[in-house]
Amino acid sequence: MAAFLPIVQQVLSGLSTQLDGAANLSANATAAASVTSATATSLTIPTDLPSLFALLSSFSALRDWMKLVVVGGFIEMCRRFFFGGYAQIISSFYITASFDEQDVSYTWMMVWLSKQPSWSKARAVQVSTNTMAQNTVIVVDDDDDRYKSFKSSRKLAYLPSPSITYNLWYKRRWMTITRIQSQTGWYGSKEQTLHVSILTRDHSILVSLLQEARRDYLAAQQHKMCVYVSDTSNNWCHRACREKRSMNSIILDPGVKDILIEDAKDFLLSKEWYAERGIPHRRGYLLYGAPGSGKTSFIHAVAGELGLDVYILSLSRIGLDDSALSELVNGLPSRCVALMEDIDAAFTSGLNRETSTAAIESQDNNAGKPTPPGAPPPPTTSRLSLSGLLNALDGVGAQEGRILFATTNRYSALDPALIRPGRMDLHIEFTLASKFQAKQLFSRFYLPAHNPDTILADDEKDEDDTGSVDSGYNSVAGEEADEKAPPSPVESNFSASSAEGSEGGEKPTYNGVSHQSRAPKLKLKQIANLASQFSEAIPEREISMASLQGYLMAYKIRPFEAVADVKAWVEKELKERTERKEKEAEAEKAKAAAAALEKEKEAEKAKAAAAPKDAAPTAETLKEPARITTS
């Protein structure tokens, strides 16, 4: 018993210690609760601003964050002011210009850039084959014989890479060029912008750069004519550049070309004369006549002769209306050729006030109505009216300084208001080919390329004086042809095995020669005699110039065969034309008969609708059948 007494004393002392600690903890918890309650009572959110600020400032952590925000904001403001001022100071020493891709100045700068020696050594370029026939980039394989064996006809070209800055010197001034490519529009169309910065404060440097770029562009386009078309956004887009066509290549009756060329040149030089008399500085030409008579080719040659670009106005474009046409005409430059081809086809029922107004009213009446089942789809043509076309040509907002060319195959279908002076000042008829035109065309085909453009048909010249020439193709050395010479050999494109394999052993029918065939050498007098024989076989005003050109293309290096076969070809052409006219006449008769029958049916329906519905049938009407009288 005495041995367990110390152990019991130790256990009791431990329990008393734990009980004292628990009592102390409960006392501390009670004190803390009372303090928290007092603090909560003292931390009530004040309702006035000074008390609120005093409360917030009592938190030390919040004061530190506020100091950090104020100091950081001040430092950021100083940084922005510094760099903004620095950029402003630096930009004050630069002149910056932007060039949009839709503007012609963008093309000027691209041509100028392609001629800079430093650009040919650029380390970062964009290679493209989509040059759109423009001379605005460096062409890699332009004159290199190594690329001539490529099957593809597209040429490789260098373009400035997007978002890369190029540095170069211009008149001892530092210059930077950057091409920015942005994606705009609903369909993701890309828009190009060229930014040019020059380290100078002299604006004459920028003016000198633009003038030099324009001179380089004009020099590059000296023998070319640019064509522009409109897009769906009513903007003019550069389509292509074509070689200028010589006026001597256009074969018309004597005096026709001189009248129009002299009139157009006088118009371009008479701007002050028009202004002094209060006459709008506009000129319009209407070319009408048979298809294939050379109207479009003549306009191409006139634009090249005058040094003007061609802007094509397509009146049948989907979505084109009066406001869009007015916007396009107002966007024309002051000196250009505006072309409206087949102006009679702008409206399906002819171009006059009555039909155009009826068409517009019909479209407006049918707008909003549901399409009946089985009905054809709505027309996809333009909603252009004649009044809108007239206002665009000579309205208050019409562009001045431009030359308008309009072509048509149906002169009688045009409204008199459209072709009156002031809109179409000069009307020129293009007829079918005459004997004079046939002779001129034949002579041009077989004269060499280096020969003068005049027709050398002077029978009084001696053959020894004129010498002999070839037709512009390779000729056998020493080979000279005379009027009794046999036709030049023809190389067939068909093999003997294919000919033997055909049914009946007949060779396939073809017309034409290989480009590797040899052409005979002809003397100038021989060409003149052959041209006379050729023209005598052509009936006056029966064959179009396009048909004659197509015929001569088949005999490109065979002048003797061209003369020998022309009579049979003319008979075939006239026979086919007669048959075609007969078919067209039969179709017109059938169409007229169907229209008359439809008219009779409509008259019967109207008569039946006008009759009283409640009238009782009489004995006579029951006995006699209904009669339909036809006229």
From TrEMBL:
Any Pfam family from its record, for instance, is AAA_lid_BCS1
Q: Which residues form the BCS1 N-terminal domain?
A: 69-250
Renumbered to this chain, the Basic and acidic residues biased-composition regions fall at: 576-607, 621-631
Q: Which GO terms describe its cellular component?
A: mitochondrial inner membrane
Region span, Disordered: 361-383, 452-516, 576-631
The record's listing under Gene3D superfamilies reads: P-loop containing nucleotide triphosphate hydrolases
**Residue stretches of biased makeup (Pro residues):** 370-380
Q: Low complexity compositional bias: what residue ranges?
A: 608-620
**Keywords assigned by UniProt, alphabetized:** ATP-binding, Hydrolase, Membrane, Mitochondrion, Mitochondrion inner membrane, Nucleotide-binding, Transmembrane, Transmembrane helix
Quote the catalytic activity from the record: ATP + H2O = ADP + phosphate + H(+)
UniProt keyword annotation of Cell division present:
no
Q: Can you name one GO molecular function term for this protein?
A: ATP binding
Recorded superkingdom = Eukaryota
Cell location: Mitochondrion inner membrane
All copies of the AAA+ ATPase domain together span 281-434
Query: Which topology term describes how it sits in the membrane?
Result: Single-pass membrane protein
Bias (Acidic residues) occurs at: 456-467
Q: Its family?
A: Belongs to the AAA ATPase family. BCS1 subfamily.
User: PANTHER family given for it?
Assistant: BCS1 AAA-TYPE ATPASE
Full protein name = Mitochondrial chaperone BCS1
| Gene source species | Mycena sanguinolenta
